[in-house]
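Q: Focus on the shape:
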Amino acid sequence: MDRHAIEALASFPFSGFRTNTAEFLLLELYWPAVLQAALGADLSAQVVPLAEADQDVEHFGTPTLLNVWLPQKGRGLKLLYNDPPEEDVAPESPLFAAVSIRQQPPGWDLPTGGQPAPATDRMEELVLIAATDPQVADAVAEAARRFLIDELPMAEMEAYCTALEAEWAAR
C-alpha cells in the first residue's frame, strides 16, 4: 500500500493509534511508505530497522514511529510522533528536525541486516518529530532525501534542519 492510498483512508491521520490497534498498524505502514517513496526501491531495500514502532498505549512519552539506518552510508533516520497540542495550549510546530551522532555502548554494533558494512557502533542520524499530515510527510521525505541520498555534510544538514523548523514554526 503506498502513501497516498493510506492518506485516502477515512481514519487518516490515525490520531487514535494509541488505543486502536488497526490505526496503529496503518500508522506503522504510513511512514515506511513515505520513506520508500522518498528513497526509491533500490535504496529502500538497503534500509535496516533499528527498532519497532511504539504504540505507547500508556502515554509514557513520544512514540517512535520509524527507526532505521543505511549501513553502507553510516546514516539513519528516527521519526517520533508529534502529539497535537491540547486545545488550551498554543499551537506548536508540526515538525521538528535535528541531526546528531548516535553512539551505541562499547561493543554494541549496529545491526547490518546482511548489508555489506563494517561493524560499527556509531552513525549520523536525522531525528524528526512529526505530525501525521501529508504536508509534513512531504517535508520529511525531502529531509530524508537530502540526508540519506544527497548525504549533505552534518553542518549543512544542521543548517537545513534549523531553516526547516523556522519555516514550519512560522506557518
